[in-house]
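[step 3/7] fold_predict: job queued, chain A
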Amino acid sequence: MTNTRSRGLKAAALAGLLVTAGAGTAYAFWSGTGAGSGSATAATMQTVTVDALVAGDNPKTALFPGGSADVVLRLTNPNPYPVQVYSVTANGPAMADAAHSGCTTTGVSFRGPAAPLSPATYVAANSSALVTLTGAAAMDTTSLAACQGATFSVPVTAEVRK
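[step 4/7] structure written:
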């Protein structure tokens, strides 16, 4: 009987030791502390370029007095990440091509879409994309007859965001 009682005491002591050890481990796990520092440098976004009607790009509509037409832009993103084209706004008066020097009153204006562009428009990393702004160029009735057949440069600024 003493042997059985001795085994029971040893088992109880072992159980108590395991509970105490487990509690100590749990306490250490939940109360651990540490210190350190880190740093990072933000990259600078490279300029996204905008070109209108580069070779091979053709608008689907043409301007006429009192009408509107699409504006087609090619945006080139040299950054290693995609960018969102947030807005496109006018950046000066529209000019007729050199072959139409008599077109001094173009009557052409840019009516950019509301920001942000909808649907959201993105240019993939290290690539270019065509963006068609439906009906964004308008020609009023003050346009001179010398403007017939002209190609117009419509300066715009595109705001892009990461």
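[step 5/7] annotate
The chain has a mean pLDDT of 82.
Strands lie at 49-52, 68-77, 83-90, 95-96, 108-110, 121-123, 127-139, 152-153, 156-161.
exit 0
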